[in-house]
Amino acid sequence: MMAEPTAVPSPAYAPARRSARAAEARAGFLFVTPWMVALLVFTMLPLIATFVLGFAQYRPGSTPTFVGLDNYEALFADPAFWKATKNTALFALCLVPLKLLLALGLALLLDAGGRSANIYRTIFYLPTLVPVVASSIIFMLLLTPNAGPVNVILQALGISAPDWLKDPRAAFWTLIIMSLWPLGIETLIFLSGLKEIPDEIQDAAKLDTDRPWERFFGITLPLITPMILFNLVIGIISSFQVFVQALVIGDTVGRPGESTLMIMILIYRSAFRYFNIGYAAAIASLLFVGVLVLTLLIFRTARSWVYYEGESR
Amino acid sequence: MSAAADTAPRKRTGRAGPARILYHAVMLLISAVFLLPFYWMINSALKTNSAIFSTRTQWWPADPQWSNLWKTINYPDFPFFAQLGNSVFYAGVAAIATCMSCSLAGYSFGCLRWRYRDAAFAVTIAALLIPPIVTLLPTYLFWAKLGLTGTYVPLLAPYFLGDAFFIFMLRQFFLGVPRELLDAARMDGAGEFRIFWQIALPLILPALTVVAIFQTVYIWQEFMLPMIYLRDRSSFPLSVGLFSFRAQRTTEWSLVMMGSLLTTLPLIVLFFFTQRKFQQGIAASGIK
């Protein structure tokens, strides 16, 4: 809660001050009211409604009926659900560390280049501007067997290239590769952390050790742990919601062979193709709980590995 | 994008020539990898369909098909100008609405003192972490009940009330407004709204353009909600239009590529005119 101002106003002004403070509090409350209404109407109530719908049999046009845990029972017996859960978890598990490592590597390179790296920074950021529908279609052509440039280059290097879009095992990596392309925001967040490290600290570290990797693990890495935490949380939450890439590649069935079937695709097709709202709501509830638990776990462990400078804001 | 880099010029002590050359060689190679998809988009957009899938890979369009541009924007399955207009409308209204609603809430969280403020702010941050799909189904049923699916109302209405991310961003900027300034205005008898409108808001005006730009980019790329709420092709924004174009015409790859190019280009142009704002926006996404 917020601290009341401690200064004691002179008696003559006291009533005026008090009414000014009351006016301020009233205004504060008033200005935030539209947002509180939005939070209630578009976040809180729907969140509760989703959980309630998860226990109902409901198709648009009919009246919802309470069915207890039927949706969850059906869900746990549905191989597609387990396939989608496995795919989504694997996707997050592969994508997030790869993306963070790549982004950190690029940020270190950008930091080393000083001003001359500005042009590269712009180039690394550009992919984030491409709508995912467009980038997914571009990657489908880039990865076309025979004619696509990626396979031509790989073959020239003597690497046997898979059929990226037809081979189920490769299709999963196609999703990862196209999701790695827009990493500009993560890179810039790491870069801002690196720029904040004072030169004096780096110089002092240079007196301590000649080995750059010792400086990196001893000084640089601990100082940017807040950025790692931020990128990690955002990365996990967003990769659990991977949707557009999977839809463009695999439609609502996860082609080829359910290899691109993700939780979001399952929710989407249950609700808007099969109109089984209760079933979709049950999956959405589980997604929410999953993301919530993961986020809480990360924040829990964060206390032991994230370095916070002095005061917290 | 330059603001952050220029604030602290780093000492480059004795960086030798060969090391510099090596550095730029590595960076150019990485840049080439990042730019390849852009190049391939343009390259494919200017080829014929058979040239795209020819086993003799064409690294540049030997015979550029400029008519692809004409064919794409006149394609009956891809009403380009209608969808471009929809995207501009969708992004424009959302950006303006977001600026209005979020500056009020951001100011209240950043500059005003009231009971339960910090609790309300904590809830706002928590809302940021909820996957949108979790709240989508009941919200969809709500709009369907009102008969408003198929219009832009469900897509735009929430932005008139606020958006957690941009409220957070603007609060960060409002925290920098000195309290003494606002108190001085209060002593002069200015009303609370007037203080917001005439003193605080002008001070963070640059931040408001950051919000408008970020929201424009975000909405331009938004896909799931317009796909779910809108029904006919002429009302789609470009992102959904491109998807349905691809789904209908899986054979016309060069035209789909031209469509991708046309969908992306406005954001690239916007970016090059407002680079500095992007830098500020990312800095203010706030991870301190």
Number of β-strand runs of chain B: 0
SSE ordering of chain A? HEEHHHHHHHHHHHHH
Proportion of strand residues of chain B = under 5%
Question: What do we call the CATH topology of the largest domain in chain A?
Answer: MetI-like fold
Biggest sheet overview of chain B: none
Order of helices and strands of chain B: HHHHHHHHHHHHHHHH
Question: In words, what does this structure look like?
Answer:
The complex is a heterodimer of chains A (313) and B (288). The two termini of chain A are 14 Å apart. Chain A is flat. Chain A folds into two domains: 15-53; 72-305, Orthogonal Bundle (MetI-like fold), CATH 1.10.3720.10. The longest helix of chain A is centred in the N-terminal third of the chain and has 40 residues, at 14-53. Helices cover 70% and strands 1% of the residues of chain A. A two-stranded antiparallel sheet of chain A has the order 1-2. The model of chain A is unreliable at 1-10 (pLDDT under 50). In chain A, helix 3 packs across helix 8 (184-196). Chain A has helices spanning 14-53, 70-76, 79-113, 118-125, 132-142, 149-156, 168-180, 184-196, 199-208, 212-223, 225-239, 244-250, 263-272, 277-305; strands at residues 56-57, 65-66. Chain B is an all-alpha fold. Chain B has a single domain, classed as MetI-like fold, CATH 1.10.3720.10. Chain B is 71% helix and 0% strand. Residues 1-14 of chain B have low confidence and may be disordered. The chains are: A mainly alpha (313), B mainly alpha (288). At the A-B interface, helix 1, helix 3, helix 4, helix 5 and helix 8 of A face helix 1, helix 2, helix 5, helix 6 and helix 7 of B.
